[in-house]
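WARN retry 2 of 3 for item q-0093 after timeout on previous attempt; input resubmitted unchanged.
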Amino acid sequence: MNLPIDSWKAFIQPYAAMLSVPMYYSISLMAVYCVFSITSNLSKFYDLDPISTSVLAEMSFFILTITPNVLEHKAGGLLPGTYLPLANMGAQGLFTAILCSIFSVEVVRFFYKKNMIIKMPDGVPSSVGKSFSALLPGVLIIVVSFVLKEIFKLDINSILTWIFSPIGYFGHDTFLSAIVPVFLITIIWLFGVHGMVIATPILYPYWYANLNANTTAIAHGNAPVHFMTEQFFQWFVWVGGAGATLSLAILLAFCSKSKFSKTMGAVTLIPAIFNINEPLIFGIPIIMNPYFAAPFVLAPTAMAGVTYVAMKLHLVAFPTAVAPWDVARTNRCLDGNWI
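OK item q-0093 returned
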């Protein structure tokens, strides 16, 4: 929507408010979606009902992070009523979203393990039975969340943000923020552990908070302010996947003299174009391979440094959109607004 063309910007300006509506329901509600998706998948892993457990997790999240604002008189175009602030529903609420998901699943799991649930007769529909089974753990989850928030006045989101604040340094627009995550992720990969799973989830809230700031700035007609986002790595550093192995796939496919290597390059080349390189990492293998270790770590680290310099000098535009592998789409949010 935000093409760098003046005529296009002038054309869509009258429709800016209307076009911004999807923004409120994408990244600005990221934490809400994450609570449901994390809880649902973790519940399935433990053979628990994903729907009822996810609903309980959502309730816990809203109690702990969202304080309703009551407007008694009309102000700023808003009618009297109760409004929910969006701020903690976005990227800055992700830490609490993860905590509420794990907490809710573990509580439900404990009740089921100890057989402390209300069981209905066999003739009762399963959906009704599951609702009653979630009743007792639901009471505990809601009570604990309420006591923490309203009785002890604990701001769980602020506490978690403070705990992880040292890590937050690597979410800033600094040179170390560009190269340290890349270095750690590739080192972890060399030991056979998916580096992105281990190293990046703790940085996601910071990266997406920066992306939120960029999209908010654009929505208000200003230039984006941050370049340290997930997209910085996804589209400028991980060219071909972790370790930037697209070039390796090309060399193997067209320059290798070994039949095995040539076949491996041909098979992995197309997936590598889409940043999928697990077949290459495990097939060569790159894991625990001293010959490939140095380029696997140093190549993407160098790319991160070059990208940092290019964006610092404004030779390359800052990331302002989430473009998934399958469907390119723009997600934005406006922090501090209301629903």
